[in-house]
Structures are given as structure tokens and as C-alpha cells.
């Protein structure tokens, strides 16, 4: 088993994830895994970094596929006895003008952004080593979507006692409510992406609390963040930040020094803790 520190970035064959891997290759003292759901896209991205003189390793990971997540888990366990840095970056968004029915958009978006990310956390968080870092890439849209929720939902999502099971129930209810076309009546905002990212931010707050309760002595720091508005296939060419600039806050959180006792359980943008 290797004692080399190891970092894993989900959805890193392009966009912000790719830029996070690029930065970690330069700054992280260990093995950096570029992961992608599609092997050939992943290996092409790995080769692109190689041309820049950077050495990332590739492993397949589709966060929608539990078998794929578990294969990565078993690989990390066997080869490294765990992992040191996990960046949950993979995500999807329908384009504004997409005509796919809203209920389908809700189901598909929540499946990857919330349930997929949660499944990765369920399988990989127990493997994170002492002084490890976990970064969940959410979005400022989670804050604006929270503002668009009913008072009752806002209270639940800001609660310091909400459980993961309660959050899963709420995310499931959103999808069900869209199918019945009652989501707005039930207090939800009209954005599937926004609700999925509320899920990611609240999940991060819950997971950080659980780490405090169950693994306090391990000094693991877990946060959610927004990369900013970044020129990628998701956000388009008019966005204000380059992918490398978008990677800055996630990379800052992934590389917090081992004597840092925070941030932990926070939502950050531009390396600054934001009020939730
Ligand atoms: P992007 O260019 O579309 O890249 C998304 C990445 O996620 C791709 O590598 C994609 O792989 C991967 N992915 C999607 N579904 C996956 C799955 N089931 N399993 C594994 N990988 C999967 O988007 P981006 O702008 O870099 O976004 C990265 C993260 O930042 C997302 O979580 C996004 O919500 C968040 N974010 C972006 C912005 C922005 O302005 N760009 C703003 C706020 C937050 P494929 O190539 O196979 O599709």
C-alpha cells in the first residue's frame, strides 16, 4: 500500500474540474486523480495535462453509477488505504432555453448534482484520512434559490439540526412536487439547478456537523463553495472568470494547511465565508 497522499476530483475531464486538477498537479504533494464518467474523454484530458508537463492519474468515475463509485472506493482503499483530498465538482445544468419538461429537468438535475454527490460522499467520506479536506462545489445560485423558498423551507434548510435523511426527503419531495406541478404551491423556487445546489450546500453543513460529532480528533475540514461565474460549457463564453480563476476557491479549500481549524461546514465564494 502506498503512503503517498492522494487527491480525487470528480467530473474533471473539462471545465472547472480540469482546472482544479491542473492546479493540484502543481501544488498538491501527492497523486492527483482526474476522473471522468467517459474513459476516452478522461484519458484525453490526462494527455492534455501531460503536454503541459503535468502528471495526473486517471480513474473512471460516473457519480450516477453506484458500481462505478464503489470501484473507485475499493481502488483507493487498496492502493492508498484511503484518500486525503476529495473535490466533488461533477455537475450538470440544463440550458435556460431547453424545452425538456420541468419535471424531467428536476429529476435528472437532482439525480446527478444532489443524489450522485451524496452517493460519492457516502462511499468516500469514511475513507478520508485525518487532516483530509473535502470540497463540495455548489453555487451562489443555492443562496438565491434559498431566498426563493417559502419561509418554512428556508427554516428547514438553515436549521442546525436537519438530518441527512430529512434533506434527502425534501430533495425527493421537490422532484415529486414538480411531477404533480405543485412545486411552487409547495414553496419551491422554479429552478431545478438551484434546488439541487441548495441540497449540496445543506448536505455539506450536515456532513461537517457529523464529522464534528463522530471524528472530531481527525481534523478533517469540509466545505461547500461557489467557483464564481466561469467560462465553461455549462456557463458559456460570456462568464467573467477563466476556468483557472474558477478553480481558485475550491483549490484554496482543498489545500488548507494542516494546522487550520477552519473554515469548516461553511459556504464560501472568492475564498470568503458567506452567510447561509
Ligand atoms: P462543465 O464544463 O459542464 O463540466 C462538468 C463536468 O462534470 C464534466 O467533466 C462532466 O463530464 C462532469 N459530469 C457531469 N455528470 C457527471 C457524472 N454523472 N459523473 C461524473 N462526471 C460528471 O461545468 P463546469 O462549469 O466546469 O462546472 C463544474 C461545477 O461547478 C459544477 O458542479 C457546476 O454546477 C459548478 N458551478 C459552475 C459555475 C460556472 O459558472 N461554470 C458556477 C457555479 C457552480 P462530461 O464531460 O462527461 O459531461
UniProtKB/TrEMBL annotation:
Which keywords annotate this record?
Cytoplasm, NADP, Oxidoreductase, Phosphoprotein
Under Enzyme Commission nomenclature, its number is 1.1.1.184
Q: Its Gene Ontology molecular function terms?
A: carbonyl reductase (NADPH) activity
Tell me where it resides: Cytoplasm
Q: Name one GO cellular component term.
A: cytoplasm
* Main localization (coarse): cytoplasm
Please indicate which superkingdom the organism of origin belongs to: Eukaryota
UniProt similarity note: Belongs to the short-chain dehydrogenases/reductases (SDR) family.
The molecule here is called carbonyl reductase (NADPH)
Amino acid at each position: 500500500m502506498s503512503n503517498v497522499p492522494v487527491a480525487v476530483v470528480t467530473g474533471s475531464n473539462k471545465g472547472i474540474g480540469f482546472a482544479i486538477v491542473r492546479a493540484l498537479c502543481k501544488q498538491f504533494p501527492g497523486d492527483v486523480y482526474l476522473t471522468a464518467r467517459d474513459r476516452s474523454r478522461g484519458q484525453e484530458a490526462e494527455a492534455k495535462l501531460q503536454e503541459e508537463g503535468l502528471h495526473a492519474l486517471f480513474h473512471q468515475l460516473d457519480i450516477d453509477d453506484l458500481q462505478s463509485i464503489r470501484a473507485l472506493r475499493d481502488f483507493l482503499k487498496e492502493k492508498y488505504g484511503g484518500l486525503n483530498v476529495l473535490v466533488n465538482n461533477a455537475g450538470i445544468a440544463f440550458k435556460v432555453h431547453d424545452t425538456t419538461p420541468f419535471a424531467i429537468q428536476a429529476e435528472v438535475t437532482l439525480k446527478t448534482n444532489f443524489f450522485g454527490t451524496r452517493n460519492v460522499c457516502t462511499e468516500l467520506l469514511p475513507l478520508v484520512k485525518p487532516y483530509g479536506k473535502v470540497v463540495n462545489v455548489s453555487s451562489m445560485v443555492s443562496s438565491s434559490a434559498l431566498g426563493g423558498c417559502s419561509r418554512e423551507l428556508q427554516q428547514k434548510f438553515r436549521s442546525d439540526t436537519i438530518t441527512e435523511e430529512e434533506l434527502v426527503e425534501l430533495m425527493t419531495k421537490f422532484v415529486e412536487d414538480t411531477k404533480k406541478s405543485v412545486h411552487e404551491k409547495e414553496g419551491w423556487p422554479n429552478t431545478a439547478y438551484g434546488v439541487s445546489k441548495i441540497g449540496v450546500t445543506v448536505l455539506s453543513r450536515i456532513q461537517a456537523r457529523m464529522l464534528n460529532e463522530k471524528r472530531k480528533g481527525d481534523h478533517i475540514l469540509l466545505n461547500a463553495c461557489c467557483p464564481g461565474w466561469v467560462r465553461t460549457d455549462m456557463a458559456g463564453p460570456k462568464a467573467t472568470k477563466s476556468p483557472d480563476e474558477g478553480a481558485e476557491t475550491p483549490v484554496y479549500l482543498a489545500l488548507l494547511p494542516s494546522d487550520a481549524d477552519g473554515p469548516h461546514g461553511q459556504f464560501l465564494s472568492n475564498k470568503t465565508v458567506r452567510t447561509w
